[in-house]
């Protein structure tokens, strides 16, 4: 079962088939996130687990795809809490930005793009996470400093 095409705000409703596909993706993403933190013996599974549906929904409705993730006129998603990286990676893998196996195999490894807090090298990542759970990214102090001029919108999780 593949994920439904949700691109564009708002998405007024979901069919039963789309809802079932998203629920299945959330289950797979939780398995991926748990595998990441277990294999690494490091990470925060609680934050990843509680944010899975939010990450799947926001990344699914944003104008952000594996094909346009390097474009300037795409949507930008800012995740304000860095301790959910395994959930972000799992959701992005479900939407096809990279293979979940890569994130599971290299989570929290030095030199890996999946080394812990989400870094700019991760496809679709905009940046801006708060330090120590403050819940607002440092980018808010200087709005959209990391977003290129002339870009569309942004979603903050």
From TrEMBL:
Q: Does Metal-binding show up as a keyword for this record? A: no
Q: What keyword terms does UniProt attach to this protein? A: Thiamine pyrophosphate
Q: Where is this region: Disordered?
A: 134-157
What positions does the domain Transketolase N-terminal occupy? 25-121
**Does the keyword Translocase belong to this entry?**
no
Give the transmembrane region(s): none
Extent of Low complexity compositional bias: 136-149
One Pfam family matching this protein: Transketolase_N
Which cofactors are reported in the record for this sequence?
Answer: thiamine diphosphate
- Which Gene3D superfamilies does the entry link to? 3.40.50.970
Quote the SUPFAM superfamilies the UniProt record gives: Thiamin diphosphate-binding fold (THDP-binding)
Q: Which PANTHER family match?
A: TRANSKETOLASE N-TERMINAL SECTION-RELATED (PTHR47514:SF1)
Family note: Belongs to the transketolase family.
Name the record gives this protein: Transketolase, N-terminal subunit
Q: What organism, scientifically named, is this protein from?
A: Fretibacterium fastidiosum
């Amino acid at each position: 079962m593949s994920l439904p095409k949700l691109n564009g705000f708002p998405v007024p409703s979901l069919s039963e088939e789309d809802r079932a596909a998203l629920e299945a993706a959330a289950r797979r993403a939780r398995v991926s996130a748990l595998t990441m933190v277990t294999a690494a013996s490091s990470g925060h599974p609680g934050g990843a687990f509680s944010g899975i549906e939010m990450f799947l929904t926001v990344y699914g409705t944003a104008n952000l795809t594996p094909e346009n993730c390097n474009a300037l006129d795409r949507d930008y998603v800012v995740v304000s809490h860095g301790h959910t990286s395994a959930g972000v990676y799992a959701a992005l893998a479900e939407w096809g930005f990279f293979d979940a196996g890569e994130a599971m195999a290299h989570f929290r490894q030095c030199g890996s793009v999946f080394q812990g807090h989400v870094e700019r090298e991760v496809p679709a990542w905009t940046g801006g996470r708060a330090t120590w759970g403050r819940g607002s990214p440092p980018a808010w102090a200087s709005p959209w400093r990391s977003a290129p001029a002339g870009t569309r919108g942004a979603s903050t999780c």
